[in-house]
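Thread title: Can someone regenerate the structure for this chain?

I was given the following input by a collaborator and told the matching structure tokens would be attached. They weren't. Posting the sequence so someone can regenerate them.
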Amino acid sequence: MSEYRPDTASFAVGNARFAIIAARWNGNITDPLLAAAEQTLAANGVAAEAIERFRVPGAFELPLAAQQAASSGRFDAVIALGCVIRGDTPHFDYVCAETTRGLGEVCLHSQLPVGFGLLTTDDLLQAQLRSADNEENKGREAALTVLEMITALKSIKG
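Best answer:
Regenerated them for you:
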């Protein structure tokens, strides 16, 4: 299966501002997601001053914080980062479903790109692989997504 790779040379984000919201729960996973998102934005010309970081307790709190950031008028995109690892109860299913739904609603209602960096894994190893310092890091992918969406939306609006 081939992996989709955006044309990073064509990002046109100008002076866009970014909110990165990361869950503290599973910090050993979310910290590398946050670092990769910041590094990806910087590597694509976003100044450090254009990025604000916020922490929330866990994944379930990501949609509310994302909504507040999006509605503040201070940001052009939001990146949400979290990790939920399957356990022995249905709690995993509820948290994953509601967090996903909530972030989708934020995106549609705010009309801002929301980078979806929520890992939903069966075990710790899967989470570690998706947050490792490599091209597969989902924080990196979430940052690339918002960069591409800002560019695409500018093009659509003309």
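The chain has one domain: 16-150.
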